[in-house]
Amino acid sequence: MSLQARVLGLSLALLLVVLGVTLATVSRATYRHTLDRAEEELVHARRLLIDKLDSRQRALGEAASALAKEDALRQAIFAGAGDAESVRLALDNHRLRTSADLSILVDLDGIVLADTGQPAASGRPFALPELLAEGGARVLRLGDRVFQIVAVPYYVPVSAPRPSLWLLLGRVLDDRLALELRDLVGVEVAIVAGGSDGRPPRAMAASWSGEPRAVASRLAMPAGDTVEIRELGDADYLITAAPLAAADTPPVTALLMRPTAEALLDYRELLGRFVALAALSALLAAGGAVLVARGVSRPIRGLAEAAQRIAAGDYAAELPLRGAGEVGRLAREFAAMQQAVGERETAIEYLAYHDDLTGLANRNRFRDEIARRISVTGGTAERRGRLAIVVLDLDRFREINDTLGHHIGDRLLLEIAGRLRREAAGGNLVAARLGGDEFGLLLAVEGVGDARRRIEELRHRLGEPSEVDDVRLDLEASFGIALHPDHGGDPATLLRQAEVAMYVAKERRLGVAFYDSSQDRHSIERLSLVGDLRRAIESESLELVFQPKLDLRSGRADEVEVLLRWHHPRRGALSPAEFVPIAEQTGLIRPLTAWVLERATAELAAWARGGDPLAAAVNLSALDLHDPELGRRILETLARHGVAPSLLTLEITESSVLEEPETARRILDQVTAAGVRVSIDDFGTGYSSLAQLKRLPVTELKIDRSFVAEMGRSPDVRQIVRSAIELGHNLGLEVVAEGVESDETLAALRDMGCDKAQGFGISEPLTAGELASWIAARAGGRAGVAS
Predict the structure, then answer these.
(1) Residue of higher predicted confidence among 395 and 380
(2) pTM of this prediction exceeds 0.70
(3) Which of 477, 492, 522 is the last residue of a domain?
(4) C-alpha neighbours within 13 Å on the C-beta side of residue 383
(5) pLDDT tens by residue, 323-356
(6) Of 150, 172, 194, which one is at a domain's C-terminal end?
(7) In terms of domains, do 713 and 579 share one?
(8) Rounded (10°) CA dihedral 656, 661, 663, 665
(9) Half-sphere exposure of residue 257, counting CA atoms within 13 Å on the CB side?
(10) 341 & 373 share domain
(11) What is the domain count for the chain?
């Protein structure tokens, strides 16, 4: 049977090859024959056209000879001698009788006596004196028209032995003649003439109009009697040419053209019939082959259809298992493969869309579910609510893994997954594990308030203590929420925004946070600064400036605050507020702080060597206080440069101490024991308690600039500043006011007993060179603010 199928297939293929070769051969021969016949017809049409023009020229010559013998014209010429207009009118009247389009009288000296076509030519030399010398006829271009012209001698009197004048008659070759010639010869005709003054060729007459007429003027004429195929406009034409003008005059050519499509019409009709016959033969042969092979191919076709259903995911497709031969055996083996593939497909699909630890949907399935929910709502906000995409991350999960082991961490993740699965059992919530200790939730809410309420309730239930291997664990999580369509329209964007909000909630200890584009630290513009900042630290292209702190008792400035500046090569000057948060979020804060401490300590050493030592205050990030090695590195840097620890002050914020209080306290105890001073920066804006401050080795409080700036406008704020100064003194601390902008504020602070002050009203931040000049000027009594 297999051999029979191959023989049938080979026979059909051979038939198709034979039909194809025959069709190609017949088509080529027929095409060549049809084209040769069309060329012969065009050459014949050219001969007819030349004969027609010759006959027309002979008739024009006979008319000119008859006119030259008429006494009426002769009398009119001599009666009007001396009056060129009278002669022209008489000549024009007799021209009309001959149906000529042009008549000219020229004397033996070659001067035009009368010209019916160009009256202004009277009295001028005739343009073609060689025509008068030879007599006869020519085809030539005069102005914008082409004429057949004959010249005959004019004898006055009739018996004179020599002619007295020359009489020329001409008939124009125009569109009307072209149409007559087309009707005569059966092809399109154009008269193309070149200009005697260098003008380009032009179709002076044609049997058609439009773009091909303009293109015909630019054609290169076929040589000799040849027939060529040329493109005119949007169609191909068979073209031949017949020269009409003498060789020594500007060329005038009759162009005969026939559309190729028209010439090959018979060929195409014949070819179409042959193709139809070949197709019918092939169809009949194919039908016979199908009938013969059907009995053989039916079982194989059944298996092929089943394979297609399996490929589409239908593993329950029934297979044709009948038969004891080879086909039956193949079907049974195919059925076994179908079952195995189905089982593996089910397992693969489960692994592709589920987390292997918790059994929850994974990130891919979660993203698909978001897309499905969005498509259901049509991508727009319904009146009844929104879609809330929530990302939650367990707090201090890394500590649990590091302290109790990863097996405890996995048990805890399973506990969280179980609670989320119970929450999702009602159908109003979709839960997924996105990776690590990060989970995703999808739920329909009525708005922001409803979303916050439901997530707070869920946060409370998830926060119930869990006991794993006799270890009681308090669970806390940070939730980030993005709403559709308020915050985005596609799953990837919404999921990323929910993660951004989750990180904000975690960093600020908010518990729950909604996405806010102003807090999106992962924006492309801000992320592009990460690499630039790393290179700036490595290439030391950052800059330190120094703002003096004025001692309000002595009037001296013996301390400065070290401030960081970065002149970005593309974005210009950037303040620390623009890049320090990025450094904190990307781990660059440690090398950045190390760079600042190194450069600031070097400046302290330089000032000490100059005999006028200054103290300096350096700001530390909250993340710096998480580094247990920070204290050791600070003391090593001071020792390396030979700087007394008492010349360095570390400025920290209240909130930075609260995040890791034990680590921060150990670092501060270590450096203050060596003599380094510690200052609480932005005092009054944080959340620290007096007890917390009392436990820290702090030597200075800095009142935030927001309070100092409002002193002159608000008595309440003035009282707050006074109370902060008194509080600091009662705790045994120096008090520094920052943000001083005027002499009045400075005087008020001095009256309140404030120890030091800084701000633009005293001095803006200065480079090291500018600082030396400023101190020298102040010592000489030229300071910007009086002490």
Answers:
(1) 395
(2) no
(3) 522
(4) 0
(5) 556 666 766 677 777 777 777 777 777 777 788 8
(6) 172
(7) yes
(8) 90
(9) 29
(10) no
(11) 4
